[in-house]
Amino acid sequence: MSDIFIYGTLMHQPLLRVVLGESFDAVAQCPARLPGWRVEAVPGEVYPMVRAERGAEAEGLLLRGLDDAALARADFYEGLDNYGYLRKPVEVLTGEGPAEATVYVPLAEDGQRGGPWSLERWAAQWGEVSVLAAEEVMWWMGRATTAEVGRRYGVICTRAQARLNARESAPATLRRKAGPGDLEVAEMRRPYANFFAVEEYELVHSRFDGTRSGQIERAAFISADAATVLPYDPQRDRVMLVEQLRVGPVARGDAQPWVLEPIAGRVDPGESPEDCALREAREEAGLEVDRLVPLGGYYPSPGAKSEYLHGFIGIADLPDGAAGLGGVPGEGEDIRAHIVSFDAAMALLESGEINVGTTVISLLQLAARRAGLRAAT
How far is CA 217 from CA 140, 205, 280, in A? Predict the structure, then answer.
């Protein structure tokens, strides 16, 4: 049995339960202090670290009686594979007196000092998405090294944000309203995971005739939620379309793989779809949007993809000089913006030159709202 002093995000009980797994209820917890160490924020990150500092004292919890399975799970999560943290022997203070334990400390310190860190503030913004991310991290235990999982952690968090967003589901008035037991996931496999992932499912579900299906196999291409914004200038009655090379048409063998789209980007962890739309407008086109008009959310290809899109029209000033080149070069983006009249955009839609679903939906939604948007200016 082992004892560990924890601080920071692991003190969040739902997260600790995921990390320790079935051993969680068997582990005793008591408040403890670690003399000579200070908990501080990591610059540029949402989690904290402990740093040795004379006269300081780190507040945390002492976990007592971790069995080998629980210890291995905690080590995996914290990255004891030459990637993240190592366990250092320390003496902590409890209400019952001093106690020997180990504590996770960074493998290296870069010298940057962080400010105070609050578990309460972290939990309010990051707690739920971190728990969902931890579920995927711990699924990889025994299937990948912590170094491999660490390199994927950013996209793991992005997928976790999408699962969190999915809790706010659309109404179910005509369609079946799913209830407990209507869907059973008998098995889930991840044969591929990187920037995107592929998940294979063995499913059993309720049928419309009241019976249960047999076990069926389905696969899904897993990606993040994304936001799209079609910039529109109601005074000039013109829109902005962005052009770039897309790998989907390349993979299909399309002779014209450059496509016309609204501005779009994935919703990052801790980010709202609205914030994503505004950020992407700045990054892709150097454009400041005055107001967002929501178009609703939708699955572009629910038979094969988890991707969910949050659509917007962005009310913006689009003078003749607003078009140009943009994108983030470090992300391999090469984007050209076009300013075209509404009628010209609809002609491109009619001719088939606009052949991307998000552009089609955005323009048709704009057509339905156009008179009202123009009257409001």
Answer: 21, 12, 37
Do 245 and 367 lie in a common domain?
Answer: yes
The answer on 339 and 236 residing in a single domain is yes
pTM for the full predicted model: 0.88
Give Cα separations from 35 to 5, 28, 38, 55 (angstroms): 12, 21, 8, 7
Alpha helices in the chain (DSSP H): 13-20, 68-78, 119-122, 128-139, 146-165, 247-252, 273-285, 342-351, 357-375
Angle, helices 342-351 vs 357-375, to 10°: value is 150
Domain count, the chain: 3
Residue from 331, 333, 350, 353 carrying the catalytic annotation: 331
Same domain, 127 and 198: no
| Domain assignment of residue 156, yes or no | no
Q: Give the CATH number, domain containing residue 95.
A: 3.10.490.10
Q: Is 331 a catalytic residue?
A: yes
Q: Using one digit for the tens of pLDDT, what is the confidence trace for 179-232?
A: 999 999 999 999 999 889 999 999 999 999 999 999 999 999 999 999 999 999
Q: In 10 A of CB 225, how many CB atoms? A: 24
Residue type, 29: Q
Looking at residue 168, the DSSP 8-state letter turns out to be S
User: Are 187 and 275 contained in the same domain?
Assistant: no
Which residue in the block uniquely carries the two structure tokens 């740093």? 51
Domain range for 18 is 2-107+115-147
Among candidate residues 6, 32, 1, 31, the one with its CA nearest the CA of residue 17? 6
Sign of CA dihedral 46, 49, 53, 57: positive
Q: Are residues 50 and 130 in the same domain?
A: yes
Q: CB–CB of 318/231 below 8 Å? A: yes
Answer yes or no: is 62 within a domain.
yes
